[in-house]
Amino acid sequence: MAAPMEKGELKTETLTNMSNGSDEKQADLSANRRNALMFSAAGLSVLFGFGLSLYNARRREPNLFKKVNADGISPEEGTVLATKALAVATVLSVSSFGLMIVGVFKLMGVNNFHEFHAKLREYFPKKESRGRVDFKNLRDLADYLISEDRKAELAKKKEAKDQS
Question: Which of 56, 94, 97, 133 is the most exposed place for a label (fewest CB within 10 A)?
Fold first, then answer.
């Protein structure tokens, strides 16, 4: 039988187990499931809210949902008009964006995305980072920013003393 573990031992064992690659995959999978659950819940709530508001609108103003209103205008005519407008706007935006991409490719003289990437690297070379970019948490980031700020202030004070 295993002896009961103390709190410190449990934390150490948990941390060592989490360092395995399989645990990282499991954590990613868990995060993906959590995200899927949140998006599903949000989508269902939107659908429920829309359905409920449509139901309330039909109950309050049944004349608006009949085939022909008192003016002789069918509500479906507005829907058809909106659908046509959406279709035209979609075609125009997709085609204009595609033409813009083709134009940029022709101006840069490239034929595929690999050449495009290489050309962009020529025009915009990668800058070397001047500081840390990996932080364990927000507290670590805040401590780093504070220490860098203090270093900059000390450098300014030293420069001011040297000039006077």
Answer: 133
